[in-house]
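Risk register update: the risk of archive-format incompatibility is retired. Evidence:
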Amino acid sequence: MHTVNKDKILTEARNHLNVVMLRLKQIKINLENAIKKSQNDFRKLSAADQFAEKAVMIHNTKQAGEIEFLKKSPYFARCDVMWEDEKDTRSIYIGKYSLSGEGIYSWIVPAAVMRFENPGAVEYTLPEGGTQKAILSRKDQYMIVGGDIKFMTTESIDNPRELVYQEYFSNRKQGFVLPEIVAQMEKAQDQVIRAHHVGPFLIAGPAGSGKTTLALHRVAYLVQAPDISDSYPSHSIIVFVQDSGTKEYFSHLLPELGIDDIQITTFAEWALSVLNSDCQYTI
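Archived output:
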């Protein structure tokens, strides 16, 4: 790919990101104003209306938190797709949370699996069990930190994956191809996260291979996937970890995935709470 084309692609990507960032800023302001209005009006309402208004405040507060995360990194992939029986190609962006007005969809949605596929004919399973076919004509991958693009690759049906930009290294590297094993591992991990939810499920691997992180992403998927979330209310889930340090670490991870009311604890702490014991213990 010629340098001028890379510059054009990067400029277009940055312009799009700037538009999204301005939109996120305005949405955050609107949500904050709506929350303040609800708080001011709350005491004036009847008991029934207070119940409804409280639900609105909780929803807006949760959405404001999601917008705050999106402001740091709105998305990490772009897929240009023409779905079966359609004539036009659409660009969708995949991120932690959805912002449908800007074409950004959560990693939870079935279509998000396309970010692991090579450009060309693709298909994925729908929640009701059918198969959706499409043509993936282009795929971009990003690392966005603090609203800035730090890393970007692009690939299409006619062009293999190529580095567009990498901060600190862009002047020294002329090309870059992610190792195929990394892409396959990411795809395999996504398949584990989306595996059928009924029955026991074992994730095995050597120390440091990411088993716990993968398990927590699966928990987030079960809680948020529209077709199965009713079966997995977050307040009914408990996650056991081996020590207090791990507990602290993962207590920050789940909120970043949109889950803030799942109990994370060690088995010893949980057992003592069940037994209602004041016994001292060490791990």
